[in-house]
Amino acid sequence: MADSALVKARWSALLTASSSGDEATVRDVLAEDESAAGCKDAEGWTPLMRAAAAGHKGVVNVLLTSPSPAPAGARNRRGKTALHAACAAGDAAIARALVRAAPAAAGVANVDGLTPAGRAARAGHARLAAELAREATFARRWPLWRGLLLSYAGRADSLADAADGTLAALVRRIDHVLPSAVAREVTTYL
Hints:
This protein has 10 helices and no strands.
């Protein structure tokens, strides 16, 4: 029972620190309990969602780069992700960091049917909405483009055997930034 109370106290401290931008407390709690990054409040908000909504770039960075990173694609009870929260606030820097951490989140719709781009547009952040729409489109189409590039490079099923080293290197780089498995996952949301 004492362990449960201690875990709840840590999670509460992490959620509060994430909302208020207290990087030191976030680091301390994560050092004590790496799994705390995935905790949720009663509405399903994670520390990452709270930090993104409040515009705390430093806390978002700590949560995404900890040894056990916060789940960037986690959803709350309303189907919102941390990316939805950043888009509602219009914070492009946090939105970009979240897209890098979870590319598939760019295409996730909440219970109201809004993707992060739609949420940004509804909040009046047109430039951010356009950027996210492009990101989601790229992620959705990457498997097709990958196949075409590899076919052109000489062999569709293997990077190692590709005849054109330049195209193969390009495909490897894009695979590193946007894994094809994530791209396939995105197609289920778009």
